[in-house]
Fold MmgE/PrpD family protein.
Amino acid sequence: MLKQHEVAADTLIGSAAYALASYATATQYETLPGEVADRAKLIVFDQLACGFVGAELPAGRIIGRYVADMGGRPQSVVLGSPDRCSAPLAALANGTSGHADEFDSVHATSDFLGTGHPAAIIVPAAAALAERQFCTGRDLVNAVALGYDVGARVISVTGGLAPMMGNHGIDPGSLHSLGAAFACARLLGLDENRHLFAAALAVQQSVALNAPYGERRHMSKAFVTGQAAYAGVTGAVLAATGFEASDNIFEAPGGIIDTWAEQGREGQLAKDLGADYAVMGANFKFYSAGYPIHSPVEAVLGLKSEHGFALDDIERITIRMPSHPASVVDNRSMPTICLQHMVAAALVAGKLGFDEAHSAALLTDPQVLRLKSLVVLIGDAEFDRIQPQGRGAEVTIEVAGGSVSRRVEHPRGHRFRTPAPTWDDLRGKWEELLVRRVGQGRFDQFFQACASLESVDDVNEVGGLLGPVCRR
């Protein structure tokens, strides 16, 4: 079997897939630029916190009960629970709860393509397997950075979110399962071919349709990220035991490039490895809503703060943004990806955090319902030209006696918005929410463990801080 692997590897030398696998096997924390390692740690902190609070939501609660019932060896932490379970099931639970809300980060490539929600897939997969293997924090940071490099490049080859969703009906973010598989394969110390086997096995378990965007509650949409995380762990563990798969799921006939590549983007798969680190494209969220909603919410809250108009005086709210993002969030049944509801709720509440996004009272509030009916969403030709997959927006609010407008090119936390998010910013996002649940002491421990992850000898010390809820 090993000889067959070696022969297969020889036949792939010179391919983009083999370049990707060779790069993966050589990665290590010590060669990551400082800003890259720091960004990966921020992603880990933010995503583990997302999984912890998301465990309280319907998708998180149900998936938690499911993995507890399935049992298995107590290898990895289930966030928000005293239970441990097998690494694949922990990845499933934490990946699902990590996207049960819309507070998890998203991602954009350096050439402006959206790639979905990599953190909710790659971090739960890598963390679960790292706990199973008793890996160091350095190992985890390196694995997360690698997972982003792979997943982002795969989706970049396809042209990003818009063509995959519009032309193929596929949720391209599910392809971050390949990044999760590479991250887990690296944690297991696999060779080049087994990295490729892991990726092939993962993608066969994880490609998702676009239909969950139309569901009533944020459940199967969250399951997509959980299943992709599960697939990444399972693919790597199977490859480690000798389970074989396609030598080149990327470039083979019927593979990813052959099936979904956008013409002219085939070379993105291995482009600038070791120079363009995908974690630097993480877009952190500071509102609890689908990402196309962030610029409109920032704009309406800014206009309200600046001009001080009464909500009763609002006659119309016109929002212009790129056409594809507009189609994703236009009047959805799912509140957290419904632009009209989130904008109205933010205006009434004066903010849009986790509590406001999931408020049952705001769903039926008469003022929210009135303002929601006044929102007019327009897919704008100018935005389509300058940022077709961007997240900018221009908002005009008409009030008695006139109108006011504000344009937000990139929402706070976006890779192209300066200054970049800091540890203080992310602490501000999470401190109040987590302290309510675990107390100040445990929050401080968790924050410090993530900020100094390179000094952690066993990553079980980190996830264990977000086990059971202990409200204070």
Observations:
- The CA atoms of residues 17 and 441 lie 46 Å apart.
- The two ends are 56 Å apart (CA to CA).
- The mean pLDDT is 94.
